[in-house]
Amino acid sequence: MTEQEFRKVYPLIAGWIKKTLAQHASVARPVASLGFSRLPHCYDAQLLASSMVVLVPKVPMPPLSAMGLDRFREFEQMDAGGTTYLNTYFVRADQAHSESLHFHELVHVIQWRLLGPEKFLALYADGLERFGYRKSPLERIAFRLQKRFEREAQPFNVEAACQSLIQDMTSHGDGPAPLDGP
Ligand SMILES: [Zn+2]
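Above: query sequence and zinc ion SMILES. Below: predicted holo C-alpha cells.
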C-alpha cells in the first residue's frame, strides 16, 4: 500500500473504529472481570483492568472494500474468533471461554499501545497485503506468544516479550523476520 493510499483511508478506518467502539461501549467490560486464572500471571493488573472485551455473534470488521481496498475483501469477510481495536477487543460469543484467544487479543492491545493507532494500522495493512493474515508480522508475534502461552505453564512477561519482538520487526525492516520458534 502506498503512503498516499494509506493517507486517504486512514481517517476512514479511524472513524469507523471510533464509531464501532462507541456503539458497543455500553456492553464492553474489563477483561479483569472475566476471572481468567492464567492471564493475571502474564499481564499486569492495570492492563487487565483497562482492556475491554465485547462479546458478539460476529466480530466487526471495517468495510475495507467499500473504502476502495478491494484486495482486503477476503480478510474483511473472515469470520474471526476475535479482533482488537485500540484497548478494546471483540470476541465471538462461542469463543468467550477461550483464555488463549483472550491472551492473543491482549497481545494486540499491547501492539496498538506501543505503536500508536496510525503506525499499528499502517504496519498491519502492509503485513496483510504482503504476507496474508496468518503470516503478517503483527499476527506472527501474537500467534507466537499465544503458542508459548498454550505450551508452557510457566508465566512470562508478555509485554516485554512483545516489545522486543516489535523492536526486532521494525529494526529488521519489514520481512517476516526470525519469528518462528521451534
Ligand atoms: Zn490476531
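Residues 3-24 form the longest helix (22 residues).
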